[in-house]
């Protein structure tokens, strides 16, 4: 579990384990984390439950496939949420860099995400995404938001097979939340080439070689697959 090694020294760690079959629980406890095992009930449900179990004033949410780089680790320890003037900060946005097959990717905004992940526990809540799907949830805080330097490294796709597995799973989850619509499917199909070009040019994905082309194409195709699966369900 690389997650434990990437955290700032001395922080309290709470791990919500979804009845994993590997050594996650043993390793987390060995490193001093508080661990609770709970059957999987969806992303939003798990986030809400975990937030309710946090006893510290501030909390950071990380997935098991995310690490903190050194700059972000230091920034967390030195962050000052109570500036000399103005209203105190209630949450921080963190940049996330996503990897594919061992290298960071810029296409489709994969290395330009700003996610609200570090916040005052009593001012935070979590909601479903804008499509109402139990995926890519939104964290919301009541109060001012600032940015911290450094990055979360999202090493979720060590192989193409791991990418395909998540692609299939996530498109199915999002499709289940949509009303089937032939018009929406055709619209997503018609705009797919434009989304591909945008993903390459807007974010400099051409610098990523085959990884950039792959991510740009699959990201453009994602919405088409979601809409197709929704139609198939009808």
Return the structural class: alpha+beta
Total helical segments: 7
Overall structural domain count: 2
CATH class of the largest domain: Alpha Beta
Poorly predicted regions are: none
Output the CATH homologous superfamily of the largest domain. Spore Coat Polysaccharide Biosynthesis Protein SpsA, Chain A
Please give the number of β-strands: 10
User: What order do the helices and strands follow?
Assistant: HEHEHEEHEEEEEEHHH
Globally, the shape reads globular
Mind describing the biggest β-sheet?
Answer: 6 strands, mixed
State mean pLDDT (0 to 100 scale): 91
Q: Using the coordinates shown, work out and report the CATH topology of the largest domain.
A: Spore Coat Polysaccharide Biosynthesis Protein SpsA, Chain A
Helix content: 40-55%
- The span between the termini is 41 Å
CATH architecture heading of the largest domain: Alpha-Beta Complex
In what range is the share of β-strand residues? 15-25%
Topology, element by element:
Blueprint: H1 2-6, E1 14-17, H2 24-30, E2 34-37, H3 43-53, E3 58-60, E4 66-68, H4 70-78, E5 91-100, E6 103-104, E7 113-120, E8 124-127, E9 138-141, E10 145-157, H5 160-176, H6 182-202, H7 210-233
Parallel strand pairs: 1-2, 5-10
Antiparallel strand pairs: 3-7, 4-10, 5-6, 5-7, 8-9
């Amino acid at each position: 579990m690389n997650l434990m090694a990437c955290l700032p020294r001395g922080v309290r760690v709470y791990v919500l384990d979804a009845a994993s079959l590997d050594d996650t629980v043993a390793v987390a406890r060995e490193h001093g984390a508080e661990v609770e095992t709970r059957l999987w009930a969806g992303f939003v449900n798990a986030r809400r439950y975990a937030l309710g179990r946090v006893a510290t004033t501030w909390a950071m949410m990380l997935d098991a496939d995310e690490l903190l780089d050194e700059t972000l680790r230091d920034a967390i320890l030195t962050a000052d949420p109570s500036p000399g003037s103005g209203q105190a900060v209630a949450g921080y946005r963190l940049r996330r860099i996503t990897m594919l097959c061992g290298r960071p990717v810029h296409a489709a905004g994969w290395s330009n995400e700003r996610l609200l992940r570090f916040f005052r526990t009593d001012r935070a809540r979590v909601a479903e995404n804008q499509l109402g799907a139990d995926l890519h949830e939104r964290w919301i805080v009541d109060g001012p938001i600032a940015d911290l330097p450094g990055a979360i490294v999202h090493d979720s796709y060590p192989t193409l097979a791991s990418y395909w597995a998540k692609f299939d799973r996530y498109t199915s989850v999002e499709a289940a939340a949509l009303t089937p619509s032939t018009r929406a499917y055709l619209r997503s199909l018609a705009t797919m080439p434009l989304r591909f070009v945008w993903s390459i040019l807007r974010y400099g994905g051409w610098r990523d070689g085959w990884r950039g082309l792959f991510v740009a194409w699959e990201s453009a195709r994602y919405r088409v697959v979601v809409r197709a699966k929704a139609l198939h369900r009808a």
